[in-house]
Design a protein that fits this description.
The chain contains nine helices and six strands. The chain is α/β, with parallel strands linked by helices and about 220 residues long. Helix 9 (about 180-185) links the parallel strand 4 (about 170-175) and strand 5 (about 190-195). The structure holds xylulose-1,5-bisphosphate (XBP) and magnesium ion.
């Protein structure tokens, strides 16, 4: 089947955004007076739970010092605002090879989509930080966050992206950085190229069709 679209994960795949997420969580916890901090090792472990709200709820369930489940939604709204602020401060760049793959895809007539666990607002913050343009001008389709009931490794967000592209899985190629992401894309029937990021360097990505250190060496089929 002819390739018609490229579907990118956002966090860790387009850019190394996870440290900004961690900082936004911690700034939010501090501002809320929770006396609570996710260090690098803790965040590495908590990343196995995809989605910020789900991550906070999982942590609340395992510790008495975590936020109560009923304040998770409000905390997450504050965290999302703080994340946009951090990205707006500048310094974010695409991972190596991403822009070239996007440009070559466009030149070959492919559509470019995003399938991510993070919110549509955070995709917008990323697009503004990188391209200074609205996300809808950069991507033909965006499937994000709570638009689906179950987050990665569930295939729902990839199936939503395919639905919006009006394509079958065999007509698209996914790009991921994490095990949860690879599992989601594979469960949706997609071919997946994986390039581990700072926070997923220890992930088992062997279910991907190809694993590369970064996309700079990737060539479109
Ligand atoms: C990334 C995530 C996200 C971010 C936080 O997963 O799990 O939850 O860490 O974003 P993936 P929100 O790259 O596999 O999509 O707080 O907006 O949920
Ligand atoms: Mg990711």
């Amino acid at each position: 089947m002819t390739l018609k679209a490229l579907i990118f994960d956002a966090d860790g795949t387009l850019a190394e955004t996870e440290e900004a997420h961690r900082q936004a969580f911690n700034d939010t916890f501090a501002a809320a007076g929770l006396g609570w901090h996710w260090d690098h090792a803790t965040y590495l472990r908590l990343l196995k739970v995809t989605g910020g709200k789900e991550r906070m709820a999982a942590f609340a369930a395992e510790t008495a010092s975590g936020p109560r489940p009923d304040i998770v939604a409000a905390l997450h709204r504050a965290k999302t605002a703080r994340y946009a602020e951090i990205l707006g401060n500048g310094g974010l760049k695409l991972r190596n090879g991403v822009q070239r793959v996007m440009d070559e895809g466009r030149a070959a007539g492919l559509r470019i989509a995003v399938a991510t666990t993070t919110s549509p607002g955070n995709v917008e913050a990323l697009a503004q930080a990188i391209w200074r343009r609205p996300a809808t001008e950069v991507f033909d389709v965006i499937a994000a966050g709570d638009e689906v009931k179950r987050k990665k490794p569930d295939p729902a967000v990839y199936l939503l992206a395919l639905d919006r592209l009006a394509l079958t899985a065999s007509e698209a190629l996914a790009f991921e950085d994490s095990r949860n992401g690879v599992m989601a894309a594979k469960a949706a029937g997609l071919r997946v190229i994986a390039a581990p990021s700072i926070f997923t360097a220890g992930d088992d990505l062997s279910a991907a069709d190809q694993v590369l250190p970064e996309l700079s060496t990737f060539r479109l089929p």
